[in-house]
Amino acid sequence: MSNPFVHLELCTSDTQKAKDFYSKLFGWQFNDNDMGSMIYSTFKPSEGPGGGVYSMPNMPTAWLAYVGVDDINASTDKAKSLGATVLNGPAEIPNVGWFTVLKDPTGAPIALFQPNPSHRPA
User: Fold this and answer.
1) Torsional sign, CA 60, 84, 88, 99
2) Quick one: 103 exposed, middle or buried, by C-beta within 10 A (0-12, 13-18, 19+)?
3) pLDDT tens-digit readout, 17-33
4) Quick check: 96 and 119 in contact, CB under 8 A?
5) Distance linking the first and last C-alpha atoms of the chain
């Protein structure tokens, strides 16, 4: 399949409660990363895409799926031409890549992600 899901993200009002739940349910281990304005906790199951858990004021608790793309700008423009609404981006994640958060024409949120080719995940 071209353009697979590459990252899953949980925005929650209680990151510790979420990390406790998913570590007990699935055995996921989390690594906390200080991003300056927040702690972003990453996880990587033995198979499939990894993801992150974070808390942001005034944001609903929800999962967001990221789909891999080769060109964030072209993919964002194509999504808009097909009826998507851009909620955020394209924006850079320093040293990691670029993302756009969209609402598809039905109102469902989805994100696009283009990795920085020089970034090597830990």
Assistant:
1) positive
2) middle
3) 999 999 999 999 999 99
4) yes
5) 25
